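Hi R.,

Here's the chain you asked about this morning:
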Amino acid sequence: MKVDTGAAARTAMIIGGTGQIGSAAARRLVSDGWSVLVAHRGRHHGDTELTEHDVTSIRLDRDDTDALLARARGHDLVLDTVAYEPRHADQLAGLAGEVGSLVVISTGSVYTDRAGRYLDTVTGPDDFPEYPVPLRETDPTIDNTERTYSPLKAAMERRLLAVEGLPVSILRPGAIYGPFSPALREWYFIKRALDGRHRVLLSDGGANRFSTSSTVNIAELVALCAAHPGRRVLNAVDEDNLSVAEIARAVYAALDRQVEIVTFPGPPEDGLGGTPWTVANPLLLSMAAATVELGYHQPVRYPEAVAATVDWAVREARAAERRQETWEKVFPSIAQRAEADGWFDYDAEDAFMGR
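And here is the predicted structure, written out as tokens:
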């Protein structure tokens, strides 16, 4: 199918369009004059300011394949932010010859090390993968039948790339952050500041490095892939490559708080000193391919991008207080993780730092 690229506005459909990536991508595309259709399940409000632009919002269950294909056909771009397994690739295969191009969000956790280890199999620092630094798109990925997050994403990628007549760009982000984030890793530091904590404890000398991915930078890649349709796989991470200690400083700077960062050598002890970015070995992805193939230049650096995330998170928490709700109700996914990993055991931290 040849898409008309004349005077009419280019059209895009975003599946999962009110999430953190979908909201950022919609904003980026409308800035280029695209007409955007945001499809969602109605569970998130997304970026309400987009109603002022050429953005239409519809409710759609992505498991309803007939409805999905009917709404997606004829668009210059379909961005799928919520494709998680091969059956989703099979759905999208029905768009071959029916859309200009497809961009699908995958994950950097599809990579394996030489021993075949990957993030889903980690039980502790001793079996953490030893990835090449940096990871490139040509490095090996998971190829097994395990039905956990990363193997399913890898299988989804392979299934999509095998579809004939469907230009598809697959993007592999790292630790995603931005407004509307359900996995608000930055809350690890934000809540400490809001609780009046003046010290934070970090293991491994605060030197752990895990590639972050601003939704603004991911959206830039989406726009470039849309402008240059093709069949490709690209990493989608920030080029800052910050350590955990540097991330902490950036978050506290955004909060205008002075906090002492206390570090100790070695891995977390009974969970103390561990953070959402703590990894036993570096997990850093290269952006060289996107730079060479698409002329990609990172629009925002981490300190600027995380400041927008922090501002959004604090406003959401304050609004919850006014409604007499807890932060756990506002950020349920991160609340579950915080409880499971003991993020805010301040008594244990104080005892450890005071010894």
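One quick note: Residues 182 and 333 are 6 Å apart (CA to CA).

Cheers,
M.
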